[in-house]
Specification:
It is built from three helices and no strands. By secondary structure, the chain is mainly alpha-helical.
Length: 90
């Protein structure tokens, strides 16, 4: 659920006061929030890459051209997928 402008302003004020009082703690809190989205992007990248490489290898071994084509298409879409995930959780 999105925050109202008053709630966002209040949170921004709290963050500014925290940064003034304890910059190290404020930095840790900001860094931990970003770590979750970075971890999600890495997980998505790992699963998509694994699926694509599996399709390409299976397609090559089994001589099924469709697997190879789909695997290559998925590999070409990895940057787009990661950008979408990263912007969604930013």
């Amino acid at each position: 659920m999105p925050l109202t402008w008053k709630e966002r302003r209040t949170l921004r004020d709290i963050e500014e006061h925290l940064a003034d009082e304890d910059p190290a703690l404020a930095w840790l809190l900001r860094a931990s929030g970003m770590a979750g989205s970075d971890r999600l992007v890495r997980q998505v990248r790992r699963w998509v890459l694994t699926a694509a490489v599996t399709l390409v290898v299976l397609g090559t071994i089994l001589d099924v051209g469709g697997f190879v084509v789909v695997g290559i298409l998925i590999l070409s879409m990895i940057p787009v997928l990661l950008t979408m995930v990263w912007h969604h959780f930013r």
